[in-house]
Known about the structure:
The complex is a heterodimer. In chain A, about 40% of the residues lie in helices and about 15% in strands. By secondary structure, chain A is α/β, with parallel strands linked by helices.
Amino acid sequence: MEVFNKTIDDLHTLLVEKEISCTELTRGYLKHIRQSEEKVRAFLTVTEDMALAVAAKVDKKIANQESIGILEGLPTALKDNMCTEGIKTTCGSRILRNFVPPYNATVTEKLQEAGAVLLGKLNMDEFAMGSSTENSGFFPTANPWDVERVPGGSSGGSAASVAAGEVPFSLGSDTGGSIRQPAAFCGVVGLKPTYGAVSRYGLVAFASSLDQIGPITKTVRDNALVLNAIAGHDPKDTTSVPFHKPDYTQFLENDVQGLKIGIPKEFFGRGLQPEVEKVVRQAIVTLADLGAEIEECSLPHMEYAMPTYYIIAPAECSSNLARYDGVRYGYRAEAEDMIDMFKNTRAEGFGQEVKRRIMLGTYALSSGYYDAYYLKAQKVRTLIKQDFDQVFGKYDVLVSPTAPTPAYKIGEISDPLAIYMGDVYTIPVNLAGLPAISLPAGFVGGLPVGMQLIGKHFGEGILYRTAYAFEQNTGYHREVPAWIKEVG
Amino acid sequence: MTYADKYEMVCGVETHVEMATKTKIFCGCSTEFGGEQNTHVCPVCLGLPGVLPVLNREVVNLAIKAGLALNCEIADFSKFDRKNYYYPDLPKNYQTSQYDLPICKNGWLEISVDESKKRIGITRAHMEEDAGKLVHSGETITTSHSSGVDYNRTGVPLLEIVSEPDMRSIEEVLAYLEELVQIMEYAGISDCKMEQGSVRFDVNVSLRLKGRSKFGTRTETKNLNSFNSVRRCLEYELERQADILDEGGTIAQETRTWDEGKGMTLSLRSKEEAHDYRYFPEPDLVPLVIDRDWVEGIRAAMPELPSAKRLRLQSLGLSEYDAKVITSSKTMADYFDKALEKYHDAKTLANWVMGDLSGLLKANSCSFEDSPVTPVQLAGLLSLIQKGEISGKIGKTVIEEIYKTGKDSEIIVKEKGLIQISDEGALEKIMEEIISANPKSVADYQAGKENAIGFLVGQMMKATKGQANPGLVNKMLKERLSQ
């Protein structure tokens, strides 16, 4: 049976109707992974035995006529920065290449409770620092739409695995665009929830005040179903918010009549590739045709978002990554004394981009520079939040491109600043702690283009409503890279 | 000549107090001392990748309580910050502490030295996590072949209390430390077990020529863990600084360490080598908002603090000195108060608590908490003496018996036949025998040597095995011999 293009509802029905057993389904996906991985290389670890054991349990339940949950028995995979008890969690880094956590992340537990079958762990830029998955300490992942191109990043494995049909859904993490940009590059749906909507417990931190876990799926409805399973307050994460969690599928109406959509002009400026702009403008026209009210608006401090982010995120990372010193776990370099052991471990264990950001952040927090960099950046962050607060007084949703270009070739961009610029539309959203979704809006030269919808705090519902209406009236989500059908 | 002839010292102290919570500051692990190495640990206090801290509310309760006991302002809005530095006993290589918005600030406590009272300012008090403990294969880190780390202590909640540089003599410093530790113990902030390292001091000290107002350059000596070490460290450090200044040298601003064995301070790092801790707000914890009801609830439940207790004891007739001795340890003071409920002569009670009972406990290395003589038993014994049923002297025997057997004094007195003889008829016969056996003393007394009566009383007591009522014997002898 072809598995690559099935939605969560499709798979659930197959199991419930006993058209396929969970074990068969799991084996089907594992087979597809084996074939597809020759091209994509999205997985760092495949947990075949564990997956089949879980599948057998689900089959027993089904055989006993017990009802199963919507995600129960469905394959999934996690970005390799979410802790999985007894399963390697490397963060895409050599320094953690043998690290096996003794505990589960809250999202891991929630997916287990929902009965999902974990097929493995997914490649990523080292410690989620990067936008192309080329910074993985192990190997780059390919974009299923063109295997010479990057899948985006840092959740490149999460997006590529879903786009290649290796799993129906995965989780990614997003600090400055790391769910949305790869979702855009790979033609799938990726949501970065409101900061505090999903527990960060067990997510290996990059920048604590910006990191957020979210679902990557083929369809908007699938996305809402996965968010249902992972969102909610967690007593283990005091930055998670006690909020009333709705059933997100209730927002999936094919109706945007009267919805007020703002188009921030700063998100359509210099650097935006004209072909991409054309696709996104066309998508906005589609939304207008569906009855949404479209108006241009302004977020005046957006030009400062990038430098602000590149102070705050590295500052937090310089402290968060201090623990990788070779003393307790992970890679340890040989040395004559303790200080050299620290130095050699970190010099040999971390890659270039991680080192660059640790240095940036250490500098920004240093005595004498703190006020000029970190403190100033926090003040600008407040101004950026205020910009959003202001426009959300008037609009329900903001629309922009997710990234200024489609996927570029592996190795094509070596200038870090040029790569950073690829996150110019996604970063402000993290600084403001807002939810945003990227969904397929069309193609440029055979490569997917993503449209970003930004909502108010805890406004995931209206994002789903808008995205669902667009999806139902366009159908880009049904496109699949040609080679996958052959592998199928 | 000592430093004090020419210079005045200026001293401030940072005190780290382990707070007496059952669980750690950011996780549910036990804070119990002395567990097998690395058994009171979990992913959170080990700082494994991905973990997050959750603030233990009881730590905040105790910090507020400490702040109130030290007359501090309690912040409405407080936050945690990360103090970044690399050391193997620190699993995250940063310590979660408080930097610019501590929970308590601007307080004071009162000390008393040579009859004069003085307020010592408390700059601030803040919450933080303790680090682990290095376990070296050899004597010291530099001479060891290898070192291990025990993380049981990692995440034990600490309160760091920073004083103003208000102390001007070693006596003042010690008085401050004693008072501070007592307050922490009385308020239930910490069990203050110095021998377990639950209180540690960093001492900042400088000298200035007498009469000058400008502070000299200070040194900070870290990690002293007893009053005695603080005293010895200051004695050494002040002489060291005075010697340098006398020779026209300058004091280097630096961090020093105290070598207990050598009895000297040693340079640890200079100002130039000082760590840049790169403090920034802890993004994994939301800021702490403390409303007035929270603070007032804790204030209302505040136990009696040492200074108030001393005043109360003085009002009951104790001297200032006795009140100070009784309150010097919380367990003694608690014992005293319990006995006082049953026996109301505070002065006599204090004498017994500080004298015989303390002596007994000390001789047996026992604490007041575990005293085999319960407060009620001591009160019972003193009541027997007060009623004249036994003499004070017999009482000394009885308390030893209570200590040994745990029996109440009434039973001991009965079993051993120790009831005091207050029957004049019974004593008269013995008196006549003593008088006729000691004609010289009788003659001496009648010749005006008044203290000769003491010998005769002693003989009477001896003859009655201490059971005679000494007051009565005295009175009877005087009457008989003046006839």
